[in-house]
Amino acid sequence: MRGRSCVFPEVSRIFHFWSKGTNVARSEYDKIFSKIVLQQSAVVDYGNLEYLIEEYYQREIAEAVREGKRVRHVAHLPRASTPFKSQSKSLVLLYKREEYYGTVAKRLGIIPQPRGSYKGTHGSRRETKPVLSSLTCGCLAGVTILRDGGTYILLVDVRKCPFLSAEEKLAPASNVTYVAAELNQSCTAACEEKKTTCSSAELEFANDCAKLKEHFPCEGGCGFEVGKDLPAYVSKEADTLLTRGQCLITGGPALNCAASSRFTRRLCACI
User: What predicted TM-score, i.e. pTM, was given to this entire model?
Assistant: First the structure.
């Protein structure tokens, strides 16, 4: 909400995840976090950081996306445990956010939600050894990045990445209308009141902080949560919730038209 972006280090220096905890499954830890490479020593010299200046950073990412060799399907990408080689400087897989959860992340053995994105592009780095570094903050321009030597794999969200051509970028339907539902009202019902139908695919474009701010005050800011009734605005009268007054977006599987909550007002996509 403040116009800031995250960038990612070469090796993650985050140590606050572990195999035990209320919301931690050991099996998931073993599949994903045990493969993450951690920085074991202090960084003495960060080198020249001019590449992080927005103008240069954005130019590099835009070039990598534009010039990368397109991969038609995630099955054509290597699995996390398989070393890979490519003659191309970058490979580009275009995907929809709802596909990331069940297919892209599973194939590559990375966290099943796009983490740390910049303009629809996510980032992580992989060496020729079967070790995957999936970072929780920052990446190259909305593109998830795996790197083998000089080759990048860029996982590009077709709805959010601005560096795609008009032919590749997925835009909202021309007949979509965004409707602010009432408290405890589903998007199915809110659209029916307008003599239209809720579209779960078009809800993806409502799953955006800027779009929510067009329809709700979002006085508590905008955050990320998990819930079937999202994207939505949490009523400021919801005294029992820490998220009251916030607008919330979500990740995970495909968005749900039928869900509702007594604490939230949904933003619906009606066609």
Answer: 0.72
Bigger pLDDT: 130 or 29? 29
Q: Which residues pair with 233 in a beta bridge?
A: 247, 265
- The proportion of the chain whose per-residue pLDDT surpasses 70, expressed as a percent, equals 63
According to the model, what pLDDT value does residue 160 have? 86
Query: Is residue 35 within 8 Å of residue 59, measured between CB atoms?
Result: no
**Chain segment 59-104, per-residue pLDDT in tens:** 888 888 888 889 888 777 666 555 555 556 778 888 888 887 677 7
CA angle centred on 210, ends 204 and 213, rounded to 5°:
110
User: For residue 32, how many other CB atoms are within 10 A of its CB?
Assistant: 18
* Distances from the Cα of 116 to the Cα of 30, 38, 122, 217, 263, angstroms: 21, 17, 6, 25, 28
Q: How far is CA 125 from CA 12, 35, 142, 173, 230, in A?
A: 10, 12, 14, 35, 31
Judge if the upstream peptide bond of residue 231 is cis by omega within 30 degrees of 0.
Answer: yes
Give alpha helix (H) positions in the chain: 26-31, 54-67, 97-99, 105-108, 187-193, 200-206, 209-213
Sequence letter at residue 147 = R
Q: Are strands 151-157 and 90-95 parallel, antiparallel or unpaired?
A: parallel
Chain-centroid distance of CA 92 in Å reads: 16
CA-CA distance, 95 to 72, in Å (whole number)?
10
Residue 15 has pLDDT above 60, yes or no: no
* Predicted pLDDT at 140: 40
d(CA 251, CA 23): 17
